[in-house]
Amino acid sequence: MTKKERAREDRSAAIAVTAFPVFILVGTALAWIFPASFVPLGDYITQFLMIIMFGMGLTLTIPDFKEIAKRPLPILIGVFAQFVIMPLCAVLVAKILGLNPMLAVGLLMLGSVPGGTSSNVITYLARGDVALSVAMTSVSTLVSPIMTPMLMLLLAGAETEVYGAGMAMTLVQTVLVPVVGGLVLRYLLDRWIGYIAPVLPWISILGIGGVVFPTVANNVDLLVQMGLIVFAAVLLHNVLGYALGYFTGKVLKTPESYNRTMAVEIGTQSAGLASGMSAKFFSPEAALPGACAAVLHNITGAMFSAIARRLPTEEQKALESETSANPAETALVKA
Predict the structure, then answer these.
(1) Topology in the membrane (predicted)?
(2) Per-residue DSSP letters for 15-80?
(3) How far apart are CA 198 and CA 55, in angstroms?
(4) Which percentage of the chain shows pLDDT scores above 70?
(5) How far apart are CA 258 and CA 246, in angstroms?
(6) How far apart, in whole angstroms, are the C-alpha atoms of residue 81 and residue 202?
(7) CA distance 92 to 301
(8) CB distance 267 to 245 below 8 Å
């Protein structure tokens, strides 16, 4: 892919991240008002999940995986932290807020799935390390058929029956196969895929809508009763992920760009996958945290990136000191 094509893809992804919450909010409102029109979409949640993950696979390239070989330690630390911090935070938040078993298991599912596809763009907007972000998302996604069922069995099995083998097979079908398929297709047809790359984030957005809207349509009454507590639980879980992810990097004394990447990768989960898996293996009620997170994670991500962009990284400070003798160059660095 050329630099021009990559820049076009990045611009499209940035616009998509901004438009995504609006699309989900409008679709959610319509599903709330006209639920009968959206309920039938629930029969195709697995297909929508496959579309989301296939779109993600098409955005990956071989250089993304070379990054794993070049920097295995920070990537493994980040992925390990994600699969420790977010599930444990989900259990903690559920206990603090006194969530019922189905909402608690839905929040745990949200904490146990891999990083969200929007995390790479949020990292870019926050001036984080994009290559590290893509590598972490790729690794967490590829290991999710093992990690997600294992975490659900360990942390939810005592109170809620978990079908671990079925969950693993579903994740292989809906995550691993589409992602690998998209990656292979990108490798074989890289030049051609580059032309349609700006469209790929929008395909994933439509797929997430296909998961979230029937979830809302099937739970109108429950949302009236529990909407506020679900919102509070997802927000607290998300903020804890950002804070603990950032301070994990601080404790390990990694560069500021790494710390921002850790915060975004750990705090931003694959909400569409969480909602779809919860609906499939537990109940429509359990899918509510994932549906809520589909909107909320992008809003908090936009807020984080807006704040982070105002604070220079070490690399920016060093560059500013080098160009301080030339006011014109300094102005360009700060732009």
Answers:
(1) Multi-pass membrane protein
(2) HHHHHHHHHHHHHHHHHHHSHHHHGGGGGGHHHHHHHHHHHHHHH--HHHHHHHHHSHHHHHHHHH
(3) 11
(4) 85
(5) 9
(6) 29
(7) 22
(8) yes
Name the pTM for this structure. Answer: 0.80
Structural domains in the chain plus CATH codes: 3-334 (1.20.1530.20)
Three-class DSSP category at 161: coil
Backbone Cα Rg of the chain: 19
**Do 273 and 110 meet the contact criterion of CB atoms below 8 Å apart?**
no
Summarised one tens digit per residue, pLDDT across range 228-275 is 899 999 999 999 999 999 999 899 888 888 999 999 999 988 888 898
Among the listed residues 146, 120, 102, 117, the one whose alpha carbon sits nearest the alpha carbon of residue 208: 117
Joined tokens for residue 1: 């892919």
pLDDT at 194 over 80: no
Compute the C-alpha angle 243/248/253, nearest 5°.
125
Length of the chain: 335
User: Tokens representing 218?
Assistant: 């099937």
**Higher per-residue confidence, 215 vs 106:** 106
Residue 70 one-letter amino acid: K
